[in-house]
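Technical note accompanying the year-one report. For the benefit of new consortium partners, we illustrate the data format agreed upon in the data management plan: each record pairs a sequence with a structure-token string. No post-processing was applied to the example shown here.
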Amino acid sequence: MQFHEVGGPEVLQYGEVEQPTPAAGQVRLRVAASAYNAADNGMRAGFLPIPIQLPHVPGYDVSGTVDAIGEGVTGLTVGDAVIAFLPMDRDGGAAEYVIAPADAVVAAPTSIPLADAAALPSVALTAWQALFDDGRLTAGQRLLVVGAGGVVGKYAVQLAKRAGAHVIATASPRSADAVRAAGADQVIDHTDVDLLDALDGQVDVLLNLAPIEPEQFAADVAAVRDGGVVVSTTAFMATPGDESRDVRAATVFVLPNRERLTELVALVDDGALTVEVTRRIPLAELPALHAEGAAGRIAGKVIVLP
């Protein structure tokens, strides 16, 4: 599935292309599944400033088996079950085969189906980076996750609890039980109560994952203690801080990290991290899924089977 021009979901075209050949430092994967991400929708529509070449194949989260190995690649064998967070400016995994840099590939979890493992890479890395690299969260600190009912949010809650943080999360009634199950100590129904009124004290880290109004976001900074940090994945608007109170602001732009992804796979296999897949669709239905995404109707993680 690829698009030759940016535009609505109708620009996605399903068809045959030549099987790609790995160059030096690359491997070819036979795709088990790719995962749909909101950024795929943004790149296809042309409003996300990532320099892709057209035609472009979406799907930068992928799972599969190593099918061919390029020159100079070590540590991988044909038939290995792997996952990867592919370079976002290159062709993705919405296909039967995809080329991956060897240094982006790690062994897949063995405790879940290989196809489902496509739901892990970029979203779990986003949660980790937001909490520990940008938020510098440590044991004993208080964390507030705004919009915890989404995919990144539930990974963030699980990882923060494992790190020994006290986790407060906002969620709608639809996702509140799932957020509690992920480990949140307190769940606030953002549809019913005011966030600042519901808190029983300030937090060390505020992680925003929701497309809230900038005015509301700025007001929420009052929930953060002096010297704390506000972290956000909503790159389309500025992340507010408060210099007068030394409240730092950080916006997450997720980066590939092979070592960290390997650690996340180990957490999955140890039972410390749950990979949630809400739906599986065939590749031919990807344009309809993009239409749902453009309308804001996708809940949970959807993987695409070739």
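Partners are asked to follow this layout when depositing records. The first strand starts at residue 2 and ends at 3.
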